[in-house]
Amino acid sequence: MARYTGPDCKLCRREGVKLFLKGDRCLSKKCAVEKRPSPPGQQMGGRRRKPSDFAIQLREKQKARRMYGVLEGQFKRTFDAAERLPGVTGDNLLRLLELRMDNVIYRLGFGSSRDQARQLVEHGHFLVNDRRASVPSMQMKTGDVITVRAGSKNREFFKNKAEFESARATVPQWLELDQETMTGRVVGPPSRADLETTINEQLIVEHYSR
Fold it and tell me: Please, what's the b/e burial string for 115-142 (b: 16 or more CB within 10 A of its CB; e: otherwise)?
């Protein structure tokens, strides 16, 4: 499957916000957004034209897509699914993105970034309800139990994750984590307060409604 393989920091600079694609680096002084806040290809202090409504909507969609590491086709299918659900389409969209397996693994602290969490899922290190799961886009449901496979717990990576980088990650209220057994559980669907606050989902809805 095609996937962006260029510099992650370039994406953050293009969107003008931290997308937390590099894990702990995004919280350090090495963060490219803080060092070079201007978009790629533009000199700092250069003049910029006022963006059109379409450009603003497009940038918001791109920001959300890149933050969650979703390809354009996947993102559009997720939006179509959100439209079919009862309730507010924008909230549904963010909720579906949050409930992706790779994002749940990231929220539980097993990966320092969504990209790392996606790689761990693809390599088959996790069980969902005692069954091996290796599809990052798999939608988690209330009551689902995610555990690190017995064979993976002995790997150096997971041994070093004993504290799950608690200084960096705070497990949201819609998830539960048992650090001793390396087990997570989906307590319920994320509420609006739990969803990504840096994304204006209404702009995304307007973009696809054009």
Answer: bbbbebbeeebbbbeeeebeebbbebee
